[in-house]
Amino acid sequence: MFERLTDRARRVLVVAQEEAKDFHHEFIRPEHLLVGLAQGEGLAARALGEVGVTPERLRAQVGATIERSKADHVGPKLPFSPDAKKALERSLRQALRLGHNYIGTEHLLLGVFQVFKDDTALRKLLGVDPADVRARLDELMPNGAVADLPQSPAAAGALGLAREMAGSGPTNTGHLLLAVLSDTASQGTRALATFGVTVESLTSQLAEIPLQGTTDAPPRPQIVEIKLGDTTTTIGDPELAAALGGLSPEALRLALRGALVDHPRESESGSEQAS
């Protein structure tokens, strides 16, 4: 899901980790994410700031409510707590619910809010009614509630089909257009037919237009996590992460196998030379 994060959302995760380290905490928690959201840019920071939530108050509350680690030092890269992981998962659900193929600060804020068991603790942390933050965020989000509006049978069917076409990847406008054209009785299909647009002609045109360079192109991943057995390796090099992020799982496995064959472990090569 990290490849869906906008640059501003990624910055929130970086700030959250820095905050957790400053407080000498062992995990990145939802509270740290809130501090990152309030300090950053984007719709979440605007919604929080416009109802009176400040990073200073949030930091003070985090310091007062979360106990410092008794360890002498914390690691250079802190893990997410179970609740923080859940908040990230919920932010992805919020983005998908709204039909967005990215995760912005607004989705992160909604995801963080959902992991608090009730609004009492959240109200104490924020210093304002969480409902006021939600209401302001809803006002700031353009067409934010579009997924909750009534839909015609054709529109509902097209959205569902577009998501199926996208598979595990993000839904783009090409999927939407093809999905609309699949219903020959819809108003949109009949209008496009007057210009000679068919599923076949559109498919042909889309095949000639690469996603890269369009607003449908997914953001380049800055971080990629590769899980091999019980070990998870994080690739933080943006260029390498972008290259790996574009590979399918099978292609990645083949690349790793090739690397192991071409570059055997030093211990193995050393023993071969000795023999």
Kindly describe this structure.
The chain has three domains: 2-146, Clp, N-terminal domain (Double Clp-N motif, Orthogonal Bundle); 150-208, no CATH class; 224-274, no CATH class. A hairpin with a 2-residue loop joins strand 1 and strand 2 (231-235). Residues 144-150 and 266-275 have low confidence and may be disordered. The chain has a two-stranded antiparallel sheet. The protein has helices spanning 7-22, 30-39, 43-50, 55-65, 82-97, 105-115, 119-126, 130-140, 153-166, 173-182, 187-193, 199-208, 238-245, 249-262, 266-274; strands spanning 224-228, 231-235. 59% of the residues lie in helices and 4% in strands. It is flat. It has 275 residues and is mainly alpha-helical. Helix 2 (30-39) runs antiparallel to helix 4 (55-65).
CATH superfamily of the largest domain: Clp, N-terminal domain
Order of helices and strands: HHHHHHHHHHHHEEHHH
Instruction: Provide mean pLDDT, rounded.
Output: 80
Structural class: mainly alpha
Low-confidence stretches: 144-150, 266-275
Rg, please?
23 Å
Main sheet: strands, sense, barrel: 2 strands, antiparallel
Q: What helical percentage do the residues reach? A: 55-70%
SS element count, helices: 15
Strand order of the largest sheet: 1-2
Domain count: the total is 3
How far apart, in Å, are the first and last alpha carbons? 47 Å
Overall shape: flat
Number-wise, the strands total: 2
CATH architecture descriptor text of the largest domain: Orthogonal Bundle
CATH fold title of the largest domain: Double Clp-N motif
